[in-house]
Amino acid sequence: MLTARNAGSRRVVPTSAGNRVRALPSVGTYCRMAKRRSKSKRVQSSGGWRETSHRLVQGWGGPQGTTIRLARPEEGPAAVELLRLSGEEPEPAVLQGLEMGLVGATLARALDHGHDAILRDLAVVLQSPEPSWGSLSASLGLLLVAVDSTGQVVGALLAHPPTSFLLNLAGQGLEQKNVFLGHIAIAKIKGLAVAENSRHSGIGSALLRRCREVYWQCGYELLYGQFHSDRGLLPSFYRASDFEVLSENDGVDLWVVFGQRVVLTNESGERVFYRWRRHSG
Questions:
Q1: Per-domain residue ranges for the chain?
Q2: What homologous superfamily does CATH list for 2-279?
């Protein structure tokens, strides 16, 4: 059995600079192409209505007159600062991805073209003799913001594959193919924050809902995160969105993802919350 604690913000994710990072198209490039092809915000498929990259970029109506959408490049610093004030520090690879317009790029393509879009971008990384885990995690990441009628960022949610956790498992013998599989099946909600004067209005729940919808549509199986045990209001908040909240000593069995016994555990003094797609309504 492989058991690894979920790495906190102190762990630095390896990144690779150069052509391997630039090989993945930015979200801005893709969405400009998608906008020329179609301005539909939702499309109908055999499985019902599906969101599109246009909707992700333009946004959904949120509580208190806000708009929930993918963060624009100029909103990145405000969103990151809001997350930092809540005690969350985005990993260096994600910050680099924000600057390069990579965050959310692959997910945007997957909303329009399905899970195969993720596999194509994964193939780009696989072709490299030294896989750029940082750029892959950023491209599969999601920075959502809630902006008010004045354009001010009043809420932010950051999620991305748990690269540090997966590399930790690789060091314990997890095969590289399963490291890649983890990147396209598991996403961690790294941080969720709402400005003090906008709290208790449903913005946090709205951000969480849209994050879940995007990752589920892109074929992900598990969303999870963690919080300090002394945050007394958070268990009820996440349970209200149908997440399971574990005690400090419990973990999540990832057999359904890897086909072997792998357990995700928490950092000391923290609790894990999680939700499987198969349990979603």
A1: 2-279
A2: Gcn5-related N-acetyltransferase (GNAT) (3.40.630.30)
